[in-house]
Write a structure and sequence with these properties.
The complex is a heterodimer of chains A (597) and B (131).
Chain A lengths: L5 E6 L2 H5 L2 H14 L6 E6 L11 E4 L3 E3 L6 H12 L8 E2 L6 E2 L6 H4 L17 H6 L4 H9 L2 H11 L11 H10 L6 E6 L8 H8 L1 H15 L3 E7 L3 H16 L15 E7 L8 H8 L23 E5 H13 L1 H5 L9 E8 L5 E6 L4 H8 L9 E6 L5 E4 L9 H6 L8 E6 L4 H15 L5 H18 L5 H17 L3 H5 L2 H9 L1 H10 L13 E3 L9 H5 L5 E2 L7 E2 L9 H5 L5 E3 L1
Parallel strand pairs in A: 1-2, 7-8, 7-10, 8-9, 11-15
Antiparallel strand pairs in A: 1-3, 3-4, 5-6, 11-12, 13-14, 13-15, 16-19, 17-18
Chain B lengths: L6 H22 L5 E6 L2 H5 L2 H15 L3 E6 L11 E4 L6 E3 L4 H14 L6 E2 L3 H5 L1
Parallel strand pairs in B: 1-2
Antiparallel strand pairs in B: 1-3, 3-4, 4-5
Helix pairs in contact in B: 3-4
Bound molecules: flavin mononucleotide and iron/sulfur cluster (SF4).
């Protein structure tokens, strides 16, 4: 077999694929072939590197050179310069925003320095469509160890000792969940992987499945062995075609290698996995709704208890875990609970994957130890706020979470601290906001999302959230009163107390946490009729400075609704009742006479 | 294709496939390994840098030395090509010129293994070489 001297890794995650990374691979291969290097240099399509801000990423190994924002036409330059002549292509290197120097080795980039990669250990390192690469990295050895050297109780004990908690949002101890499922006896049990990932902006689970699908298969089989289940189901949204594709390939390969199917590794244990597709409803991520959806019923939640561990899919004991939770399992088995235990805080062990988004320099996928502070995440890994603006808040936990502010910058991030701060871990979305974000509008954005996604089964959520949303709209239009602010709180409390499922029980959180942290801003909207961020259009008005206007008529001619009146060479005025605040006039005025008040 | 019939099977398979990922595994732990940078400018290639790199890769494998080979641009010693820079963890980088197979053997057997100096060292200013 040819021994490659160099490997070129190209990100084939959904993000980089959208920016033509498949074409880069083609071009690299063509350029290598033209130079007779196809047997010396291997081109590998991998999963996400995480540094999506600067994708597509191409990584050269063994010298670890990290090229960013590569275009298909750069492929030939990379081959001719880097590979043939050994010269780095400097204009593709990452430039450190602080020192303005090129950084070629990703290990020295602020983005990677503080990360610890457990769940993402193979993402961006192996070819996810090649089981041999997974096996070379120890894939399926944890399963082998469980099947040959451990009893199911030992496996559960190890997971319990590790302190692993569910990464799907709730943070329930995984080992305890497995133990409950194992103690419920039935002729058939199920292992379900929740790959619904419905939070707006979240792509952690997708990236894991795209980058390392075998680790999910392995972990599900381990879970099956531990609880006594022989069937696994992955509930994945149909909007994730690439992840579905890679999972299917991985399942097929695992079967061919005898790592799924009957009598795995000669142990007598049988396990197989099927995929089930969801239509992308947020509520179907809730485990009871998810199970109903898999059964072919309406994707609506039902009251717990009974918990799925007692009566789940087809009424059988079912263990539901999140993708990232599963991704941690094989490592815990191989390296031991004690190793895992050392990472993180007292009550939150290990790492958490976050999808960094919003007004931050390094948008992307990161994995950090629990207990890291928000400051480290935003300023060291995230590279600070875009355009040198000021940090205002970060939203965690998606539609169920809340906003953290400057005063939380040094709070160690873990399940309990986030809840104490009025937010939650959620599945790992982190949206960073700067001074130009209006907190009333943010709360409204999430409420609109919940109203859309509420299944409508129970009144507090169906009607209550709608009312909350209407009140927020009223406030952002400048028609709110102080009573509305108090009423927001009351109604939010009632919804939290009375909604049937987790969706409704947490949906008021974005409102409550912004009320708590940005009360002044709400009051400004209501009393002063002002939006300091300049987001709420109804609260803005455009004005022409009579002393600066020369009457050139440029604004009047460009106003789409003819709101500007005035004679030629005379100062003009805007009829604020007609004005739609589109800003066309400001753009046209050469004299800086128009301003927003 | 062979099925995995036991944990031992799987481990054997891992052994077998592992070398395919060697280049990648090594690049993540470069600092802990012997790094050998081979100057691959036009002059280096013309004087046989490619062949010497291949020779050294086999040599390292044969001697079971964990080494990572990196191609670099011209190091500016065009009169002494092929030139290689060897960084053994804990030691200062050393540049050797006019490397042929015999010299490569010496570098491995004497310098890398025993820290014995061999002829052909090119004096360099480390600060520049580090860049
Ligand atoms: C409205 C709603 C949406 C949810 N969406 C997801 C989801 O997309 N992915 C997920 O893993 N868990 C989701 N959950 C949590 C699941 O109900 C369940 O707790 C989780 O899958 C359990 O796995 P874990 O213990 O590994 O976290 C959601 C919960 C609620 C209430
Ligand atoms: S809380 Fe909302 S999503 Fe949940 S059952 Fe009630 S209506 Fe449906």
């Amino acid at each position: 077999m040819a021994k490659y001297k160099m490997h070129v890794l190209v990100c084939g995650g959904t993000g980089c694929k959208a920016s033509q990374s498949a074409q880069i691979v083609e071009n690299l291969k063509a350029a290598l072939a033209d130079n007779g290097l196809q047997d010396e240099v291997q081109v590998v399509t991998t999963g996400c590197f995480g540094f999506c801000e600067k994708g597509p990423i191409v990584k050269m190994m063994p010298d670890n050179t990290f090229y960013t924002q590569v275009k298909p036409e750069d492929a030939r330059t990379i081959v001719e310069e880097h590979i043939i002549k050994g010269r780095k292509v400097t204009n593709l290197l990452y430039t450190d925003p602080e020192t303005n120097e090129h950084v070629s080795d990703s290990k020295h980039m602020g983005f990677y320095k503080k990360q610890i990669r457990i769940a993402l250990r193979n993402c961006g390192f192996i070819d996810p469509e090649n089981i041999e690469e997974s096996i070379s990295r120890g894939g399926y050895e944890a399963l082998g160890k469980c099947l040959t050297e451990m009893k199911p109780e030992d496996v559960i004990q190890e997971i319990k000792l590790s302190g692993l908690r569910g990464r799907g949002g709730g943070g329930f101890p995984t080992g305890v969940k497995w133990e409950i499922a194992s103690k419920n006896h039935a002729d058939q049990k199920y292992v379900v992987c929740n790959a619904d990932e419905g939070d707006p902006g979240a792509f952690m689970d997708r990236s894991i499945m795209e980058g390392d699908p075998h680790c999910i298969i392995e972990a599900m089989a381990i879970c099956g062995y531990a609880i006594g289940a022989t069937k696994g189901l992955v509930y994945i949204r149909a909007e994730y075609p690439l992840a579905i594709d890679r999972l299917q390939i991985a399942i097929k390969q695992a079967r061919e290698y005898g790592l799924l199917g009957q009598n795995i590794m000669g142990s007598g244990f049988d396990f197989d996995i099927e995929l089930r597709y969801g239509a992308g409803a947020f509520v179907c991520g809730e485990e009871t709704a998810l199970i109903h959806s898999m059964e072919g019923q309406r994707g609506e939640p039902t009251f717990k208890p009974p918990f799925p561990a007692v009566s789940g899919y087809l009424g059988k004991p079912t263990n539901v875990n999140n993708v990232e939770t599963f991704a941690n399992i094989p490592v815990i088995i191989t390296k031991g609970a004690e190793w895992f235990n050392k990472i993180g805080t007292e009550k939150s062990k290990g790492t958490k994957v976050f999808a960094l988004a919003g007004q931050i320099n390094n948008v992307g996928l990161i994995e950090v130890p629990m207990g890291i502070t928000l400051r480290e995440v935003i300023y060291e890994i995230g590279g600070g706020i875009k355009d040198g603006k000021e940090f205002k808040a970060v939203q965690t936990g998606g539609p169920s979470g809340g906003c953290l502010t400057k005063k939380h910058l040094d709070t160690p991030i873990d399940y309990d601290n986030l809840i104490a701060a009025g937010s939650m871990m959620g599945s790992g979305g982190m949206v960073v906001m700067d001074e130009t974000s209006c907190m009333v509008s943010i709360a409204k954005f999430y409420l609109e999302f919940t109203c859309e996604e509420s299944c409508g089964k129970c009144t507090p959520c169906r009607v209550g959230n709608k009312r909350l949303c209407e009140m927020l709209t009223k406030i952002s239009k400048g028609n709110g009163t102080m009573e509305d602010l108090y009423e927001l709180r009351n109604l939010a409390a009632v919804i939290k107390d009375t909604a049937l499922c987790g969706l409704g029980q947490t949906s008021p959180n974005p409102v409550l946490s912004t009320l708590d942290n940005f009360w002044d801003e709400y009051v400004e909207h209501v009393v002063d009729k002002k939006c300091r961020a300049g987001v709420c259009k109804s609260l803005m008005s455009y004005e022409i400075d009579q002393s600066k206007c020369v009457g050139c008529t440029a604004c009047a001619r460009n106003c789409p609704v003819s709101a500007i009146k005035g004679d030629k060479k005379m100062p003009h005025t805007i009829d604020t009742a007609v004005c739609i605040k589109c800003g066309a006039c400001i753009e046209r005025c050469k004299f800086g006479a128009i301003s927003i008040k | 294709m062979t099925k995995v019939k036991s944990l031992a099977d799987l481990k054997a398979m891992r052994e077998q496939f592992q070398s395919n990922l060697d280049v990648r595994e090594k690049s993540n732990n470069q600092e802990e390994m012997v790094q050998i940078k081979v100057a691959m400018g036009t002059c280096g290639i013309a004087s046989g840098a490619k062949q010497i790199m291949e020779y050294m890769m086999e040599k390292a494998d044969g001697m079971k030395i964990r080494a990572v080979f990196i191609q670099t641009g011209c190091m500016g010693h065009c009169n002494a090509e092929p030139t290689i820079e060897v960084i053994v963890p804990g030691r200062e980088p050393v540049v050797f010129g006019l490397v042929n197979n015999k010299k490569a053997d010496e570098i491995f057997e004497k310098y890398i293994v025993n820290n014995e100096m061999v002829d052909g060292v090119i004096a360099i200013n480390n600060e520049v070489a580090d860049k």
